[in-house]
C-alpha cells in the first residue's frame, strides 16, 4: 500500500512576506457548513448556543469562543470552525463537512488592508469592517470568505483548487503596495 | 453601480448576475393557457423609467433579489429578498 502524504492546500506556496504584509496559511481545522432547515433557525441558534456557546451569527458576523468560531457564510449558512458540530445540531440543520475544501490564508500587517483593496470590492476599512466581521465577496474573480478577527489580521478562504491563484494574486498586490510605499 | 443587498449591504455590481424582469416570480399554474406561458416567457415591457428585476448575489450571500431601478437615470432605489417579495404575494 502506498503511503499518502497529507499536505495543506497552500503548502509550499507560503509564507510570503513583502513590505508591510505577510501571507501565511492557517492551521487546518475542522470546517462544517451549518444550514438551518426551513423554520428551524431559532431552534438551531439555541442548540448552537447550548452545545458550542455561540448563537447563529447575524449576517456579516464572525463569532469566537476559545478555539471555536462561527462565521456567517451566506444566506442561512454559517461555517463552524475549529470543532466538529454537536450531533444534536442535526435535528435542526444540514451539516456538511468542508474541512479539506478550503484554502485558508492569513494576511496580516500594516499594509494588509491596502493589499486587499487591490482585489476585493467591499470596504474593509475599520469603520465598515470592524473586528468580528465575515464578508462573503470576491478576491479578483474568486469567490471568497474573508474573516476579520481584529487588528490588522484578515483571513481569506477560497476553494482549495484556487490556492495557487490566490497566493499569486495576493503576492502581486503585496509587491505593488510595497513598491508604491517605497516611492 | 452598487446594489444594496438586504443581507450584505451595498455591494459592487461585479458580485451580481442579472436574470431579467421580476415577472419571473409570477410563474403560471401548470395547467395555465399557452398564452399565459407565452407571456411569462417572452413578453416584456421596455420601460424608460422605473423597473424591477431579478439579480443573483452569487459572489455574496447567494440570495436572489428583486432590485428596483430606473432605466433612464440608472438610479438603484431599493432591493428586497426575492422570496420575501414572493411570499408577500
Ligand atoms: Zn447579499
Topology, pairings included?
The complex is a heterodimer of chains A (183) and B (89).
Chain A: E1 16-18, E2 21-25, E3 31-36, H1 41-52, E4 62-65, E5 68-74, E6 77-81, E7 93-97, E8 102-108, H2 112-117, E9 133-139, E10 142-150, E11 153-159, H3 163-181
Antiparallel strand pairs in A: 1-2, 2-8, 3-6, 3-7, 4-5, 5-6, 8-11, 9-10, 10-11
Chain B: E1 2-5, E2 9-12, E3 17-21, H1 34-42, E4 50-56, E5 64-70, E6 76-81, H2 82-88
Antiparallel strand pairs in B: 1-2, 3-4, 4-5, 5-6
Bound molecules: zinc ion.
Can you put this structure into words, describing what you see?
The complex is a heterodimer of chains A (183) and B (89). Chain A has 183 residues and is α+β, with helices and mostly antiparallel strands. Chain A has helices at 41-52, 112-117, 163-181; strands at residues 16-18, 21-25, 31-36, 62-65, 68-74, 77-81, 93-97, 102-108, 133-139, 142-150, 153-159. Chain A folds into 2 domains: 16-28 and 100-182, Probable tRNA modification gtpase trme, domain 1 (Gyrase A, domain 2, 2-Layer Sandwich); 31-99. In chain A, the strands form 2 sheets. Chain A has a 6-stranded antiparallel sheet with strand order 1-2-8-11-10-9. A 5-stranded antiparallel sheet of chain A has the order 4-5-6-3-7, with helices on one face. Chain A starts with 15 loop residues before the first strand and ends with a helix. Chain B has a single domain, classed as 2-Layer Sandwich (Folate-binding fold), CATH 3.30.2270. Helix content of chain B is 18%, strand content 37%. Chain B has 2 helices and 6 strands; from the N terminus they run βββαβββα. Chain B has helices at 34-42, 82-88, and strands spanning 2-5, 9-12, 17-21, 50-56, 64-70, 76-81. Chain B has a 4-stranded antiparallel sheet with strand order 3-4-5-6. In chain B, strands 1-2 form a two-stranded antiparallel ribbon. The complex binds zinc ion (ZN). Chain B: One of its GO terms (biological process) is tetrahydrofolate metabolic process. Chain B: It holds the Pfam family SoxD. Chain B: This is Sarcosine oxidase subunit delta.
Amino acid at each position: 500500500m502506498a503511503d499518502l502524504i497529507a499536505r495543506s492546500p497552500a503548502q509550499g506556496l507560503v509564507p510570503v512576506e513583502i513590505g508591510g504584509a505577510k501571507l501565511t496559511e492557517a492551521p487546518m481545522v475542522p470546517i462544517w457548513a451549518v444550514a438551518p432547515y426551513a423554520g428551524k433557525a431559532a431552534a438551531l441558534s439555541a442548540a448552537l448556543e447550548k452545545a458550542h456557546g455561540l448563537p447563529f451569527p447575524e449576517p456579516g458576523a464572525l463569532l469566537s469562543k476559545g478555539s471555536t468560531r462561527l462565521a456567517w457564510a451566506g444566506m442561512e449558512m454559517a461555517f463552524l470552525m475549529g470543532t466538529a458540530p454537536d450531533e444534536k445540531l442535526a435535528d435542526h440543520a444540514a451539516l456538511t463537512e468542508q474541512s479539506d475544501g478550503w484554502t485558508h490564508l492569513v494576511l496580516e500587517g500594516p499594509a494588509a488592508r491596502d493589499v486587499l483593496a487591490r482585489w476585493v470590492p467591499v470596504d474593509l476599512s475599520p469603520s465598515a469592517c470592524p473586528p468580528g466581521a465575515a464578508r462573503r465577496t470576491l478576491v479578483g474573480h474568486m469567490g471568497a470568505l474573508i474573516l476579520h478577527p481584529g487588528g490588522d489580521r484578515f483571513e481569506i478562504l477560497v476553494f482549495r483548487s484556487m490556492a495557487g491563484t490566490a497566493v499569486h494574486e495576493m503576492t502581486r498586490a503585496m509587491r505593488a503596495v510595497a513598491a508604491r510605499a517605497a516611492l | 453601480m452598487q446594489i444594496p443587498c438586504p443581507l450584505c449591504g451595498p455591494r459592487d455590481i461585479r458580485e451580481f448576475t442579472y436574470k431579467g424582469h421580476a415577472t419571473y416570480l409570477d410563474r403560471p399554474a401548470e395547467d395555465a393557457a399557452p398564452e399565459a406561458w407565452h407571456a411569462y416567457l417572452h413578453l416584456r415591457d421596455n420601460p424608460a423609467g422605473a423597473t424591477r428585476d431579478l439579480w443573483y448575489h452569487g459572489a455574496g450571500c447567494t440570495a436572489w433579489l428583486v432590485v428596483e431601478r430606473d432605466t433612464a437615470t440608472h438610479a438603484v432605489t431599493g432591493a428586497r429578498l426575492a422570496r420575501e417579495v414572493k411570499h408577500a404575494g
